[in-house]
Amino acid sequence: MLSYNRYGIHISTGSACSLGYAEIPRSIFPFISNKEEGKRYIRFSFSHLTTEQDILTIIEVSIKIFNPIKEERIHNEKKINWQGTS
């Protein structure tokens, strides 16, 4: 969440109705197979004041945040696969 805050984007890991609760919102259950997956989602709230540029900024920032994570995972998987072979 701090990564988004650095760009002035505020996100949540829960529903708007459960502010302060650590529970996974029931609305996410149809999209997950277990509670661990439910801990890996974030929520963006939009309103009639949200502009197209706001959404484009969220997309750009998300790419900046998640691409390095994705690259690190790929690198680690290759490293594990390489170490596992003789």
TrEMBL record:
What is the superkingdom listed in this entry's lineage? Bacteria
Which protein are we looking at?
Cysteine desulfurase
Q: Which organism is it from?
A: Gracilibacillus boraciitolerans JCM 21714
